[in-house]
Amino acid sequence: MSRRLLIARPGHIYLATYKPASPTITITIDLDLPIAGNPSWFAVSPTHPNFLYTFDENAATTFLYELDLAANTLTKVAERKDGSEGVCHLGLSKDGGIMIGSSWASGTMDVWNTKNGSLEFIKTIPSKDPVADAGRVARAHQAVLDPTGRFFVVNDLGTDSLLVLDSAAADVPIVNRIRVLDGSGPRHGVFYPSGGDSPATHYMLLCEKSNRVIVFALKYTDKDIEFTTVGSYSTFMPGDSAAERIAGAAAGEIALSGDGKHAYTSNRLTSSPTETIAHFRVLQEEEGLSLQLVGETSTGGKHPRMFSISRDGGELFVGNQEGEWAVVVLKRRDDGTLDDKPLAGIRMDEIVKPGGDERGPMFVLEVV
């Protein structure tokens, strides 16, 4: 059965068809929608899956689109210019009523009313604490909703902090700040376990600058979430930490498998001809939760800023900003490891033409 992929890069939004039986990915009969700026992230409404929120990362504009897969159309419903400049991630509440936009460029968090497919700006919250973060430049990068649906955790790459926001309060206040090791660069994170409505037991934080996954044990209180560090793990195989290929590397994305047994991260900006997805086993033992790095798999390209796990858990969809392959589909085996040879892909020269912005996809997600 065919699956549909939403793919975005600077200046373009694509709808593609992935056919596992072939296997192939095509966009020729689907959609190539020109768009001003850089729509580098999308948030899909949990209550109205045809409503997609995005932005222009190069400006202060936020958009609401309506997706019609049967007609291969993406129609702009609303456009607002009252958010922060340089937003790079959008996170939605469980009921779809609140959206948090994280701005790397401005070091702020925008709060939006998105109830029933609306797009109403509420307020901007500075990420930086003027005292605790004195001398630092805030870089809010992602807002992650916890499984209970009450708290957002915002990873701030510039202040090396995690900020806990309480979405149950009318003003969505910051209720806790957790300092991470200086120079770590908190980028993206996932709660464990991720399904259901029960409080999470752990949080896995991918750090861009240190190229490590930090694991925190969590304790919920009546007003916030408390974090305790229980482990730290390199995203590169042993022996690579001093290798020339990872000098200046910057980890990109993290994802957790649906069963919670495997975590994946992307390694970027290395000197290797192609870059990799790292695979970790998640080990839940008597002494606590830990990660075991199993291996790295080539993405067929360079600068894999974002990837996502397919809805049935059988594949990884990876976007490369540079290199030969713009998008690749990596098969997930039953043991969580990834096949070295991609199942299918889109070559960079199929979608990127000379003369315009030559950066490849920054976002790829299976949609319904």
Key terms:
single chain, 368 residues, mainly beta, Methylamine Dehydrogenase, Chain H, four-stranded antiparallel beta sheet, 28 strands, globular, 6-phosphogluconolactonase activity, Haem_d1_sf
Give the quaternary arrangement of the chains: single chain
Strand segment tally: 28
Radius of gyration over C-alpha positions, nearest whole angstrom: 19 Å
End-to-end CA span: 13 Å
Tally of discrete structural domains = 1
CATH superfamily: YVTN repeat-like/Quinoprotein amine dehydrogenase
Task: Return residue spans where pLDDT drops below 50 for at least 5 consecutive residues.
Answer: none
**Tally of separate helices:** 1
Helix/strand-derived class?
Answer: mainly beta
How are strands sequenced across the largest beta sheet?
Answer: 3-2-1-28
> What is the CATH top level name?
Mainly Beta
Largest sheet: 4 strands, antiparallel
User: How much helix, percentage-wise, in residues?
Assistant: under 10%
Q: Would you list the SSEs in sequence order as H and E?
A: EEEEEEEEEEEEEEEEEEEEEEEEEEEHE
DSSP strand content: over 45%
Q: So what's the overall shape?
A: globular
Give the averaged pLDDT, no decimals.
95
CATH architecture: 7 Propeller
- The fold-level CATH name is Methylamine Dehydrogenase, Chain H
GO molecular function, one term: 6-phosphogluconolactonase activity
Family: Belongs to the cycloisomerase 2 family.
Pfam families: Lactonase
InterPro entries: Cycloisomerase_2 (IPR050282), Haem_d1_sf (IPR011048), Lactonase_7-beta_prop (IPR019405), WD40/YVTN_repeat-like_dom_sf (IPR015943)
